[in-house]
Every structure is written in C-alpha cells, then in structure tokens.
Amino acid sequence: MAALYFKSRRRSSAFTGLSSAFIPRSFEICEVSLNLLINPPSKGCPVVELHDSAVDVKHLLNVLYNPLLFSEKTVPLSFVAAIVRMGRKYEFKELLAAALQRLTDENPTTLDEYEKLTNENGISYTSTRITHYRNMSFDVITLTRENGLLTVLPCAYLRAILYTNLVNFFLCPIFYH
C-alpha cells in the first residue's frame, strides 16, 4: 500500500489529470473524505491512499515526472509491468499504449515480424526494447495472462520453449517482483 502526499493540489492534480481520467476523480473523492474526516490531511496536504505495490507507484511517478524514461532504448520488464498494471487500473491511456507497444514489439503477432528479431538461423534472439534477463519469457507470460494481453502470449510461449533450459529453470528459477 502506498500513500501519495500532494503539497500543491492544483499543480499535481492538473499535471496528472493530463494523463489519466482517474486522477481528477481521486482528488474529488479525497476532498469529500477530508470533509468527512475519514482521511485527515497530512501536514495540511490531501492524502490519496493507493492499494498498489510501492514499486509500481514508484515506477508510475518516475514516468509521470520524467516522461523521457519511455524514450530510452530498453527498460526493465518490471517497469513495463508496473505501467501496464497502473495504466489499466488508473486509466493512463498514453502510458499504457507505450508499455503495450514495447511488449508487442518484443513479442510480435506475425511470423515475419518475429523473424526480423532473430538472427539468420532463426534461433537466436536479442531483446531490443525490454532489458533481457534469464527466464524473462515466463515473466512476460505471467504479466500478459494477468492483464488479458492474449496477442503477446503465442510469441512468449514460443520463446519460453526455445530459450529455456528446463533443467536449469527448475533447479534455480529467477523471477522479478
């Protein structure tokens, strides 16, 4: 769980309202709760309580206050996953679209697009938009299934089959959080 403290309600709500339809509603809800003394202010600032992981909130705030993060060539899957989860939940349409584009760039829906990402023998693959790590395919499968991104699944399953040594996977799995 994370709590957001907004010192300047006008600036923060106007800024984040540009990206999300949900955020302005949360300020209205916050004002009502302040009036009812359900959620008292902290140091005179409204408090918005979020029931999301602190890491997801951190990634979301990082990209809201530094939009150039998405212009970097590669970003960690945990960053993309946080933006997918938070973007869907809080209606950040542009951020969600950018995160989904990274996932679909890495996991194309056509064979021609997939072959462009592999070397000449069609076996080796190098991640171009998401920082690669061992057993990443399984994390992509989990993320896409949890969020109903079914077009990403066939390629992610194929990569899981082709690029995972199952003996090593079951002896020493590595997962992101």
Explain how this protein is built:
The protein is mainly alpha-helical and 177 residues long. The protein folds into two domains: 1-51, no CATH class; 54-177, no CATH class. Helix content is 55%, strand content 5%. The chain is built from nine helices and two strands; from the N terminus they run βααβααααααα. α1 (9-17) runs antiparallel to α2, α3 crosses α4 (77-90) and α7 runs antiparallel to α8. The chain is elongated. Residues 5-11, 13-18 and 32-37 have low confidence and may be disordered. This is BTB domain-containing protein. It comes from Mycena venus.
In short:
This protein is mainly α and 177 residues long. It contains nine helices and two strands, in the order βααβααααααα.
Give the CA-CA distance, first to last residue.
Answer: 15 Å
Number of domains: 2
Q: Roughly how much helix do the residues carry, as a percent range?
A: 40-55%
Task: Describe the main β-sheet briefly.
Answer: 2 strands, antiparallel
Overall mean pLDDT stands at 77
Strand order of the largest sheet: 1-2
Number of E-state strands: 2
Top keywords for this entry?
about 180 residues; mainly alpha
